[in-house]
Amino acid sequence: MSEQDAIDTLDEQRFSRRGLVVKGGLLTAGAAILGGPAAASALGATAATKTRIAVVTHGDTGSFWSVFKKGVDQAVSDLKARGVSATQVYANNDVSKQVAGLNAAIAAKVNVIATSVPDASALQDPLTKAASKGIEIITVNSGLGAFDSLKTYMCHVGQTEDVAGEGAGKQFDAVGAKNLVVLIHEASNSGLTQRAAGAKKTFKGTTKTLLIPNATSDLPGTQQKISAYFKANPKTDAFLALNPDVATAALTAVPKGTKVGTFDLSPGVITAIEGGKILFAIDQQQYLQGYLPVVFAYLFVTNLNTVGNGAPVLTGPGIVNKANAARVAALAKQGTR
Amino acid sequence: MTDTASSPKPPAPSPPLSSPPGSSPPGFSPPGAADERLAQVGVLTTILKRPDTGAFIGAVAVFLLFAWTARGVNWAGDPGIWSTWLNTAAYDGIVAVPVALLMIGGEFDLSSGVMIGSSGLLLGILTTKADWNIWPSIVVVLLFGLAIGFVNGFTVVKTRLPSFIVTLGTFFMLRGLNAGLTIKITGGVSINDIDKAPGFDFAHKLFASTVWNKYGLAVPVVWWLGFTLVAAWVLSRTRFGNWIFSVGGDPVAARNVGVPVARTKILLFMATSLVASTWGIMTAVALRGMQSNEGVGREFEFIIAAVVGGCLLTGGYGSVLGAAFGAMILGMAQIGIISSGWDSNWVYFFEGVVLISAVMLNTAIRRRAERAR
Amino acid sequence: MSSAGGNDAHLLELEGVSKYFGNVLALRDVSLHVDAGAVTCILGDNGAGKSTLIKILSGVHHYDEGVLRVDGEGVRFASPRDARHAGIATVYQDLAMVPLMSIWRNFFLGEEPVKGRWPVSRFDIRFAKQTAREQMGQMGIDVRDPDQPVGTLSGGERQAVAIARAIYFGARVLILDEPTSALDVKQAGVVLRYVVRAAERGVGVIFITHNPHHAFPVGDHFVLLNRGRVIGDHVKGAVTRDQLVREMAGGAELEALTHELEGAVDT
Fold first, then answer.
1. Do the beta carbons of residue A186 and residue A93 sit within 8 Å?
2. Exposure check for chain C: N or C terminus, fewer CB within 10 A?
3. What is the topology classification, in CATH, of domain A2-159+285-316?
4. Highest averaged pLDDT of the listed ranges B139-148, C7-16, C94-103, C176-185
5. pLDDT at B335
6. Rounded distance, CA A118 to CA A94, Å?
7. Torsion sign (Cα): C203, C207, C213, C214
8. In 3D, which of A318, A243, A314, A240 has the Cα closest to residue A279?
9. Higher pLDDT, B172 or C117
10. B51-66+76-371, which class in CATH?
């Protein structure tokens, strides 16, 4: 029985604890018979080696990060029998809370830290310290290229914000829009500014940005502000939201005929795409951003596997539009997309 | 010597002794002359004495500022633009009303923002998960508001801890509940499709419709006006209003003359949470859903509106009308900056300048009015 | 300014009243009285038992021995409310005034006159302003602007508001707790005028102070308290100011101190 087959069977019997124990035992026995000493000790080490991962992000409790969290939770649940455990910190856009979470992870001597990077300079110190202590580092969601130089840097799992933005710009181009406004809903998030910059790069018309800080905690107010913007800039015919809740709220505020696109999915967004109200959604598949780092961590700790070879593991941009919305809809209802 | 415990008979209060002619105490002039001297106090001083004068002046000044900088969109003359900032003002103004009353009563409620989200989420859960008709759901949400307000008030009164701290605790608890409980019940962190609930159409009409379709003036503005007028009347023209002033100005003195201090404060907390709940319902109906972040951080906007409106942070003095002008200033600022094409990073800076200027203006006016006696 | 005749019942009377706090004897066998239209001064230094005395008279504490009589009938107040109903009003040093509120609001705080029925019963503001102005007039103060916050009044004027309020709401006995102690000489003089004015309106005034110079001009009756006991009881006319001062300061001790000081200066 090859290693791959063993894992596949495990997947099928995922919910059977007894099945896992049995299969685990068979695996070890099988490996001892089949494999050389190295394989035996690696797989034999499976049951005993613990993989402890700390997932520390700047996320909040909104619809985007809840999908991310589902990814992490599912991965941990899938690999729990293999000794994988995770602590999760969602700092709600408070960088100092994120730094505190990282420091806590270092103190707890975890094997791997998976962190988002809304502000690279703020995280420089804790991550350098983590690297010096031999803790592996995976960046997720944001921060591509920020910490490549660290000794223990593994890879980036996410969507490159600028490339994603470029994708959005192209989408608007394809429908012939001329004046685009990008709504930035968080004041100090470089990822959002990168998305806007990417869109500006590929969009052939004019691109402007509108900053509404904390837009998601006062959606009715945000609607009024969007409405005011369009009154002040009546030639605007395209609107790009960087958050699904903002997108659905904006639908009632933008003038009829405005082309609306958004980042990230939500049930409301998918319904709107199916209904033709939203043109497209750039899906960065944040479920993967939560799930994959846990798997990579496990594979590295137990098997010294590395991924990417210096290139990021791209989880996006996936374009969700009318053509594929229906299929994605069912999954979004589960909260996994 | 017997100790008969006879219950003292309460005597009738002595009738106001009118001074019989010829026996006026020295230095006191007959009523006619006093009236004429009263008129001399002056209409201007009477106006300046009001706590809301500063806020009114501020609102006019901000309006004129944007009338100039946003003239490109006809800030001064386009009812559509007026509707936009009036709507935005209402979103702060509605909850600023009880927050102002509470501040005059000497207390703070930091949970007023997150309460909006909790209420909307509760409405969503009842209508979309338990499949209730929207109207009994609304009743339950309002009762929830009253209950949280009672908990806030009762805790503050019984423990004598600062309300800042107590309601901060409530804030964190509600925030955790918003996220955690919602995920547990729905698997996600936003509730959608509230509009599928029976009874929704009328609810939408009452809470989220447009009253002036041509220009987009939304019905929350009417609610805002209503709440403001009722609260202003209660504050200045009723017995309870007198108690509010006393409980914030000097609770010891108030208790000594028989004002029910605890009851007054608890009622004020309940009113605040109730109105926040109402606004949560209105938001959820308007957005046809609610996501768990809603409202977090807004509690400070309500406080700013009240302070700009002339309410003292230390309590005992202020005006509901002033808070309405304060909300207007906030609404104008947020929309005006966008309409003027300024970088919206300046919104926070502008709000800070407004806050400090308004407080300085209010203090200056009040001092001047006092000296003019 | 009539002194009580032997046959008339006193408006308020304490006879042989004692009060214990645990083992501590705060008041011992205290007897005093006040009549309508008269001022009884209670003099004593700090620790003499004045505050305990006030609290018993105003219903905050229960007394342990003796009897308290109102209009000749023995009573026991269950609470300050009872005392108020019996017409005994206490004006404490902090005056129970809210500085930021206007004169008329303070005047009617807790006893607001209302018009109409719930839920639209309103505070009868016109009546309140008018009455407040009238009542202050009775005290000799011309209130030009009843909207004036009480905090902007002088100390003496604030006392006047408190006294006028108490009288208006039916006080037959007015207990004034150190009304002049926090005031300068001029303001104190003004307050003493109000004390007299109150008595003139038929109220029995109990004026509590540690300053015999303030008490002497207005009192009809002087009771000296020291360590919970009555050490002196004089009717006006039967005592001079100096005698009062000496008795209060513990006469003999003051003389000894004076001699000592003079001796020190000489050498």
1. yes
2. C
3. Rossmann fold (3.40.50)
4. B139-148
5. 92
6. 10
7. negative
8. A240
9. B172
10. mainly alpha
